[in-house]
From TrEMBL:
Bias (Basic residues): 7-16
InterPro entries in the record: ABA_WDS (IPR003496)
Biased composition (Basic and acidic residues): 94-111
Superkingdom per UniProt: Eukaryota
Name of the protein this chain belongs to: Abscisic stress-ripening protein 1-like
Family the UniProt entry places it in: Belongs to the abscisic acid and water stress-induced protein family.
Signal sequence bounds: none
Region (Disordered): 1-29, 89-119
Annotated gene: LOC113712262
Length: 119
């Protein structure tokens, strides 16, 4: 018996145990959702930056309307456009925030972390 233990070979390929193939699939799914979560997080930040930039532009145009009364009407229109873009970008950021949360829930589900809410 001692000789049999000495001649134990390490193989490059191992035999799969029951359920091991399923774990590989779950890990791939979890990685997919992790990547999706990261993607939505990035787009959420883009939306936030867009909202901030558009809001700053709207404030700039509001200032220009006061400073340049001859073209005040044009500046007020551009201020409204900037404000609308800020609201739209904020909505996009909120949408991506919810998409990110959904991807995180799917990742946790794929990893087997289930949250059972009682209420």
């Amino acid at each position: 018996m001692a000789e049999e233990e000495k001649h134990h070979h390490h193989h490059l390929f191992h035999h799969k145990k029951e359920g091991e193939e399923e774990n590989i699939v779950d890990e791939a799914a979890a990685h997919k959702y992790e990547k999706e979560e990261k993607h939505h997080k990035h787009l959420e930040k883009v939306g936030e930056l867009g909202a901030a930039a558009a809001g700053a532009y709207a404030l700039h145009e509001k200032h220009e309307a006061k400073k340049d009364p001859e073209h005040a009407h044009r500046h007020k229109i551009e201020e409204e456009i900037g404000a609308s873009l800020a609201v739209g970008s904020g909505g996009f950021a909120l949408h991506e925030h919810h998409e990110k949360k959904d991807a995180k829930k799917e990742e946790e589900k794929a990893e087997g972390k289930h949250h059972h809410h009682l209420f």
